[in-house]
Write a structure and sequence with these properties.
Structural class: alpha/beta
CATH superfamily of the largest domain: NAD(P)-binding Rossmann-like Domain
Distance between the termini: 22 Å
Number of helices: 11
CATH topology of the largest domain: Rossmann fold
Order of helices and strands: HEHEEHEHEHHEHEEHEHEHEEH
Helix content: 25-40%
Length: 333
């Protein structure tokens, strides 16, 4: 039974618990899990595609780099799966109808990617403020070309659309650099390092005052096309758009037009739609655009952080407590 359903004690429940772990996790991670939960049986997915022995008894899954087709195979083989946790920070590309139909608890790794993504946002802001792409092009051309005055970060306004875990990690770093921070969140509430948290209905106010607009919102039907022509028109002509969320949050033709005409000063794009970004996309050739291949969340420390998050939720699962960072179908994340 899931949290709140009267599960037995941790030990008695653990003795009957089989957890399937993605083959992307290293041997030391399997050892860490086994040491932390000696009464739980951990089995690992096979790199050759064969179903692991004992999969039919699986009650929980730790997903990482698992295709949707692979996940469907696991679900067909394991009738008793109650909970799936993913390495991913989002839900939009891996939650399957079968999971919802079977009332499987679905959770994500909410804190695993926060640090590298927040650091990448700071790197993007630095690049634009100090005009590093322009200087790099001059270096590649062997040209001593002064860029003139460079911008400072102190006092600049950062508007974060999506003041969740990643947004909050971005906020304190920006505040530490002397920047001002405002945010938009589905449920407006006071948060550290934010001067103000606005409700979604007041996103236009954020767009109008921000020097850097950072997209950190989840991908849902409500956020698809969140930034289009009208929103880009609301932004300062000197502003920069930073997307570390999902490409579908932005209407691409409208963004290309805004950048090509100088309606906004630039964009740093780590998320694209589609991915990979096609070679003939006009974004590649725009001089005020920085493009990265959806790598802002990459870090050698991520696997260890995701295992730590999973351990806490596994403890909760075995104790019958509410799971953290659970998918809510009605809101899409």
């Amino acid at each position: 039974m899931l949290a709140g359903g009267g599960r037995e004690s941790v030990d008695s429940s653990a003795e009957r618990c089989v957890v399937l772990v993605s083959d992307a996790y290293a041997r030391e991670h399997m050892a860490e899990l086994s040491h932390a939960f000696p009464h739980v049986k951990f089995i690992q997915a096979s790199r050759d595609g064969e179903l692991p022995e004992g999969i039919e008894a699986t009650r929980a899954v730790l997903r990482y780099q698992t295709s949707n087709e692979e996940m469907r195979r696991y679900l067909r083989a394991a009738d008793d799966v109650e909970w799936i946790q993913s390495f991913s920070a989002g839900f939009d590309h891996w939650v399957l109808p079968e999971m919802l139909e079977r009332n499987i608890a679905i959770t994500r790794s909410a804190a695993t990617h926060n640090i590298p993504i927040a650091e990448m946002v700071i790197a993007f802001i630095m690049q634009m403020a100090k005009r590093l792409p322009e200087l790099a092009r001059a270096q590649a051309a062997h040209k001593w070309a002064s860029p003139g005055n460079l911008d400072e970060l102190t006092g600049k306004m950062v508007g974060i659309i999506g003041a969740g875990a990643i947004g909050r990690e971005i906020a304190w770093r920006c505040a530490a650099l002397g920047m001002r921070v405002i945010g938009v969140r589905r449920t407006a509430a006071s948060l550290p390092n934010f001067e103000q948290i606005l409700p979604v209905e007041e996103t236009s106010e954020l767009l109008a005052v921000s020097d850097y607009v950072v997209l950190a919102a989840p991908m849902t039907e409500a956020t698809r096309g969140l930034i289009g022509r009208d929103q880009l028109e609301m932004m300062k002509s000197t502003a920069c758009l930073i997307n570390i969320a999902r490409g579908s949050l932005v209407v691409l033709p409208d963004l290309v037009t805004a950048l090509s005409t100088g309606r906004i000063a630039g964009a740093c794009l780590d998320a694209h739609a589609p991915e990979p970004l096609p070679a003939d996309s006009p974004l590649w050739d725009l001089p005020t655009v920085v493009i990265t291949p959806h790598c802002s969340g990459f870090s050698a420390q991520n696997e260890s952080r995701s295992v730590a998050e999973f351990k806490e939720n596994l403890r909760r699962f075995l104790s019958g407590e509410e799971l953290e960072n659970r998918f809510v179908p009605s809101r899409g994340y």
